[in-house]
Design goal:
CATH topology of chain B: Rossmann fold
Strand order of the largest sheet of chain B: 3-4-2-1-7-8-9
Number of strands of chain A: 10
Low-confidence stretches of chain B: none
Largest sheet of chain A: 7 strands, mixed
Shape of chain A: globular
Order of helices and strands of chain A: HHHHHEHEHEHEEEEHEEE
Number of domains of chain B: 1
Low-confidence stretches of chain A: none
CATH superfamily of the largest domain in chain A: Vaccinia Virus protein VP39
Mean pLDDT of chain A: 95
CATH class of chain B: Alpha Beta
Number of helices of chain A: 9
Largest interface: A-B, 33 and 33 residues
Mean pLDDT of chain B: 95
Strand content of chain A: 15-25%
Strand order of the largest sheet of chain A: 6-2-1-7-8-10-9
Number of domains of chain A: 2
Distance between the termini of chain A: 62 Å
Oligomer: heterodimer
Strand content of chain B: 15-25%
Radius of gyration of chain B: 15 Å
Radius of gyration of chain A: 20 Å
CATH topology of the largest domain in chain A: Rossmann fold
Helix content of chain B: 25-40%
CATH architecture of chain B: 3-Layer(aba) Sandwich
CATH architecture of the largest domain in chain A: 3-Layer(aba) Sandwich
Chain lengths: 283, 203
Amino acid sequence: MLPPPPPEADIEISDIRKLTDLIRQKYGYEFKDYAMSSFKRRIRRVLDLYKYKTVDKLVSVLDSNPDFFEEFISEITVNVTEMFRDPTFWKVLREQVVPNILLNHDKINIWHAGCSSGEEVVSMNIMLHEMGVLDKARLFATDLDNAIIERAKRSTYSAKNMDLNRKNYHRYSGQPETNLDSYFKEVGNEVVFDKALLQNVTYRRHDLVLGNVFSKFDLVLCRNVMIYFNQTLQNGVLSRLHESLFKYGYLAIGSKESLIWCEIANKFIVVNNEEKIYKKIKD
Amino acid sequence: MVGKYKLSNKYKAVVIGGSAGSFQGITQILASLPKDFPLPVFLCLHRLKHVRNGFVEALSIKSSKPVVEPHDKEPIKRGMVYLAPANYHLCLELGNSLALSTEELANNSRPAIDHTFETAAFVYRDKLIGILLSGANKDGAYGMAKVKERGGLTVVQDPAESMIDAMPNAALAATKIDWVLKTEEIISFLGELDKVTKTLAPA
C-alpha cells in the first residue's frame, strides 16, 4: 500500500469570499450565491489543474492576468451532459408538451438556458425533425461560457461518448430500427452533427445570474443548471425564467430538482412530476 | 460515555457508503435501525447510472424507516434516510439542506462516496459518523480521511467479512479508523448510538 497523501489545506469560506469579490469587481460576474458544496469542489479542481497551492494564488493570477479568466470560467462551470438525457423526459416532450404548444400556436419558441456543449439542443432538433415540425421551431441556446458555446456551435462530439447517447436515443424512440448515427458524420475520432438541422438555432452568451430577460418563450429548458446555485439565487433565476415564458408556457428542470421550496411555485402547475415539467399559469 | 463503543450524545448525522457486495449489509442495517432513530442518515451506494427507478424501492422493502431520494436543496429532517439518486452526486449543503450535482464521475462513480463524505464532514465536523462498507474500488477512502480530519468518528466493515474488501482496506490505509466492525456489530453500534442520543441530556 502507498502511504496516504498529506492532507491538503481546506478551502475556507473566507477564501471563497475573496475569490468571488475579485471576480465581481474585476470581471462583473457574480458567484457568491453558488451552492457551497459544489463550488468549493470546482475551486479545488482548478487549484489541482493549475497546481496552485492556495486560493490566494488563484486570486492573484486572476487579478493580474485577464486572459486566464475565460479559461477559469470554462473550468469552474460544470459541462457534463448527454444526448436525450432522461429518455422518458423526451417522450413526454414529444407526446404531450410540443403537440400541446402547436395546438394553439403556429410557431414554437424554445430556450435552452445553460446549453453547455449543445447535446440537449441536438436532441431537441432531432426530435422536432422526426415530428416533422422543425420548420415551426425557433431555438435559443445560451450559456455563461464563451468557449462552450463555440463547442455547441460546432456540435462535434467524441465518438466514444456516442454509445451512451445511442442507448438514450433508443429508449426515447422506442424503435430499434431508428438510428442516431444517421444524423452524424464520422470524422476521425469525432462525430459531426448535420448542420442543416441547426439552422433555426441562435447561440449566444447569456448570464442567468445577472442577465436580463431578453425574449419570451413557449418552452424553457433549464435542467441541472440551478443545482449549482443556492436557494436565494434559485429564487432569483426562477423569477426571470418565469418572466421569460408566455402565459401557459412550459418550464422543464432536472429530474431531481423541484419548485416546492421556491417562492414562485404558486405561479406554475405541475404537468409531469416525474419529469419535472411545469406550466406557467400566472403572470 | 457509556456502552461498548463509548459513544457520546454529540453526533448529529450518519453517512454510509458502499459498493459491490454491500447491498445485503446495508439491507440488514436498515432493517435493524430503530424506527425512531433520531439522526439523519445519508446513503451513498454505487448504482447503475441510467436506472432511475427500483433501487430505493428495493432498499425500502425491509428498511424500518422510509428511504427517500432527495431533490436538490431539500431541507434535511431528523430521522430520515436519504439515498443518493442515480447519476447524481449527493452533497451536504450549508443551511441544513442537500445538494445534487452532475459533475464529472469521481473514482468512476456518480454518485461518488468521497463527495458525500467530504461535504458531510465540512457541515457536521466532529458531530459526524462515517461508515464504509464492502466495495471494489477506493471511493470513500479520501472521504473517510476528511471525516477523521474534521474530528468525526470512522467505522469500516471488517474486510474479513466484506464480500469485496478493497474499499474498507483503502480507507484503513488512508486514515485512522476508529472501529472495524462486522455487520452485526455495526447494527449494535447504531443501536447504542440511538440510545445515547435519546437518553442523555445534551452536553
